[in-house]
Design a protein that fits this description.
heterodimer; A: alpha+beta; Folate-binding fold; four-stranded antiparallel beta sheet; B: about 220 residues; Gyrase A, domain 2; Alpha-Beta Plaits; six-stranded mixed beta sheet; five-stranded antiparallel beta sheet; 13 strands; about 20% helix; about 30% strand; globular; disordered C terminus
């Protein structure tokens, strides 16, 4: 059974989680040019590697970020968005 | 015959059962079933207990202002002095459930009619169950991927997981020296959830029991 660790609820089977897409900073829609905005809306990075992704522990509706190697499907770490913001600040 | 104020999400499934019925908080409730006293797995419907949900960044502070003992850690619970419990579901959501004779939840719901900023009442129309008996963990092993044998009951844990495909909240606790699992799920899954659990409990030599057969003992444990 594949296990993912929710930062709040601990290790759980992967069936309890839903994928929410890669973490991508949104460009400012008021100042961005059309090409950059279109790229943000329609394009996704398909090159495998270590990525930050949104995941949700569905039974508790806990959204968090997982660092996952999309080449090997290895989950390196998981953390709450607030923790990531603290690291930035 | 009076029309009941409330119905359990599994009222239709319960009605076919032989037993003594009563009314709790306006809801017809199966109180007692004959010959079910020492079943290895007994499942009681506690949906008739009143409950209240609240969430939001200021929910913990608001509950404290109302005199509710707020669990400090996520996914833990505390007893309410008049009976019942308050469970912290994750970081900022709370479930308050009364015991058989307390009425904290309706009072909180009334006070939350015009909530302050970042406090949001949550409608709770759950199927609420209690699982008791020596073989309850066998039933949980068949239906859920959390290892409850490794869960430390003394830490007052709240487990949010899925069981037979349904999102559930589970509190393992001790009542009168017996291990009891309190369980809540969305009422719309009630009939499927109840029938599936009862089928498994029957295979283990148990079945449905009444509310009076849940080992509530002291006032502080009522509803927990």
């Amino acid at each position: 059974m594949k296990i993912m660790t929710c930062p709040i609820n601990g290790p759980r089977p992967i069936t309890e989680f839903a994928y929410g897409g890669e973490v991508r900073p949104m460009p400012d829609p008021n100042t961005v040019d059309d090409a950059t905005w279109a790229a943000y809306i329609y394009n996704r990075n398909s090159i495998p590697g270590i990525k930050q992704e949104w995941w949700c522990h569905v039974p508790s509706n806990t959204w968090f970020i997982a660092e996952r190697n999309t080449l090997t499907d290895e989950i390196l770490r998981t953390y709450l968005y607030a923790e990531a913001q603290e690291g930035v600040a | 015959m009076n029309t009941p104020l409330r119905l359990s999400p599994i009222d239709a499934a319960l009605r076919s059962l032989q037993g003594h019925w009563g009314e709790v908080n306006g809801m017809p409730t199966l109180m007692h079933r004959p010959r079910a006293a020492h079943w290895p797995v007994g499942i009681a419907d506690l949906s008739s207990l009143t409950r209240f949900g609240v969430k939001g960044a200021n929910a913990a502070a608001w509950l404290s202002q109302q005199g509710i003992p707020v669990p400090q850690r996520p996914n833990t619970w505390r007893s309410l002095p008049p009976g019942g419990l308050v469970a912290r579901l994750g970081l900022t959501e709370f479930l308050i459930e009364d015991g058989l004779s307390s009425n904290v939840a309706p009072q909180l719901a009334a006070r939350c009619q015009t909530p302050p900023a970042r406090v949001y009442p949550v409608l709770r129309q759950d199927l609420a169950l209690a699982l008791v008996g020596d073989r309850t963990q066998e039933l949980l092993r068949q239906t859920c991927s959390v290892n409850f044998q490794a869960v430390d009951v003394s830490q007052h844990p709240v487990v949010l997981t899925s069981m037979i495909g349904v999102t559930v909240t589970i509190i393992p606790t001790e009542m009168a020296g017996q291990l009891v699992y309190r369980l809540w799920c969305d009422g719309t899954f009630g009939t499927y959830f109840w029938k599936t659990l009862i089928e498994m409990a029957t295979e283990l030599g148990g079945g449905a029991i009444g509310v009076e057969q849940v080992p509530f003992n002291t006032a502080s444990e009522r509803g927990v």
